[in-house]
Specification:
Blueprint lengths: L3 E6 L4 E6 L4 E7 L9 H12 L9 E6 L5 E9 L8 E11 L3 H96 L57 H11 L1
Antiparallel strand pairs: 1-2, 2-3, 3-6, 4-5, 5-6
């Protein structure tokens, strides 16, 4: 037996209409029975879950039969956990509906309810569709904004990379230029020393690329009083003349004029 049910819930009772499209049954102001394991509040709560709440997590089994007087007996059964029981207990709720002679009025009321429910449902669907469209537009806008931010960040990184590359290349060129200048300076120093050596100045100073070191070359024959040995500097070509009382030292970076004067004095 397949039935269509229309439940109107009230504060402490409910109205129920049922039809199988050929016959109709109804009852108003249904209240909890006086002889039931549940209290009246619990019975109404479970009846609401069974007949009125489509989102209930509890599973129900429904049975309907028509007795000899044409009344509709509707049962709903579920398992409940009771205090003092180890296992859930199967408990049944029952309502008895009286047959309705004006079957057309019941169908009309049911159709009106279905129409109203459909309008409400369609309105909810339209609202959800509008909300979904708005969210989709917002999502596309957010994606576009994110893409623009990513592109801007990429352009910024590309610009910084180009600037870094230019700066690095300029530093490399500067280092190469400084290395070339240093090599040229060393070559000029070596050429100057060679020219001085070829000029025949035995006591000509030797120029080096180390400005912090003073170099001397001293030649002395014999030993000095007190056991001091004659000294010879690390660079040949720079000489010092000695006498019994005086000794003249020539630094490696001395000017050529000073070297020539020292040589004349030694001669």
């Amino acid at each position: 037996l397949q039935l269509f049910l229309l439940v109107t819930w009230r504060e402490h009772s409910f109205d129920l209409q049922a039809t199988d499209a050929r016959r109709s049954w109804a009852d108003k102001g249904i209240t909890p029975p006086t002889t039931h394991i549940f209290s009246p509040e619990e019975w109404l709560t479970h009846a609401r879950e069974a007949l009125f709440d489509p989102n209930s997590s509890r599973e129900f089994e429904f049975e309907a039969e028509i007795d000899e007087q044409g009344k509709l007996i509707l049962d709903w059964t579920s398992h409940y956990e009771l205090v003092g029981e180890q296992l859930p207990v199967k408990i049944t709720g029952t309502v008895v509906l009286q047959p309705v002679m004006d079957h057309a009025s019941v169908l009309h009321g049911l159709l009106l309810h279905l129409t109203s429910s459909y309008k409400d449902f369609k309105g909810s669907v339209d609202a959800l569709r509008y909300h979904n469209t708005a969210l989709s537009d917002k999502l596309r806008g957010s994606e576009a904004l994110l893409q623009s931010k990513v592109e801007a960040q990429r352009d910024r990184e590309r610009e910084l990379f180009i600037k870094f590359t230019l700066l690095l290349n300029s530093k490399k060129e500067k280092l190469v230029s400084l290395a070339e200048q240093l090599a040229e300076a060393k070559a000029e120093i070596a050429q100057l020393n060679m020219q001085l050596h070829e000029a025949g100045a035995d006591n000509a100073p030797v120029y080096t690329d180390n400005e912090d070191e003073e170099q001397y070359e001293v030649e002395a024959s014999g030993t000095q009083r007190g056991g001091t040995q004659g000294r010879q500097a690390r660079h040949p070509g720079a000489q010092a003349t000695t006498s019994a009382a005086t000794r003249t030292l020539l630094p490696a970076h001395a000017a050529p004029a000073a070297s020539a004067a020292a040589a004349a004095a030694a001669a």
